Task: structure prediction
Amino acid sequence: MIVTPTNKEVTKLEGLHLYHADMSNCSMRVRMTLTEKGLPWISHHLDLRKKEAVTPEYFGIHPKGLVPTLVHQGVVHIESNEIIEYLDETFPDPPLQPEAEDERAEMREWLRTATEIHLPAVKTVIYTRKIGKVLRKNDVEDAKYRALQRDPELLAFHAAATSGNGLPQQNVEKAEATLYRLFDKVEAELSEHEWLVGDKFSLADISWVPLHFTLIGVEFPFEERYPHVTAWAAAIRERPSFQEGILRWCAKF
Result:
């Protein structure tokens, strides 16, 4: 998704620039893709613990203040799964999408699903179990965020998740049920194929493995329930893109 920034300084940037955070699973996807492609990029790291994304300057780049943001030749791209697809189409060698149209459609469905569950499922569980305490806002920080954020869904989420109130238990239970349902599907797929879509590593795997990595960090029970998912994640962990795109920035979630 391309957006028009109000912070016009970024429109002057040449090459590939990535605004990202070490522990952001969405940032992990893009860093992995850049590494798989062997693309040089300039890092603009934002420490979420220090609320470095909650500034007028960054909201002027990304209208919701989220990471990652990719700036390519002065054009601003947001939404991680759209960014990785853009990178693969813009820099097609080596390809990270299946050649067959039916498999490409399947891959895009995995990307779409990962995007849809980010806030209501993945982020809900991660913030409830760990990150809400790490990123807790005091009154001054909360007021600053509210002054910048215009998205009602994000305002409601962070009001509960980072202010000490906690998310409603029914939301948490629904999020966990969603994750179990979808990783049951992932497990079934990986019982028949080496990768999420057929027998070639693709953007689908890049999209989903950061979810596994961050959920492991909050003790989601993969090993006892999902042996094929566990083996799949272990295989990806050996790839240079995982080492460079995830572990270099976030050795342990």
Remarks:
- DSSP finds twelve helices and five strands in the chain.
- Residues 101-247 form a domain with the Glutathione S-transferase Yfyf (Class Pi); Chain A, domain 2 fold (CATH 1.20.1050.10).
- The mean pLDDT is 96.
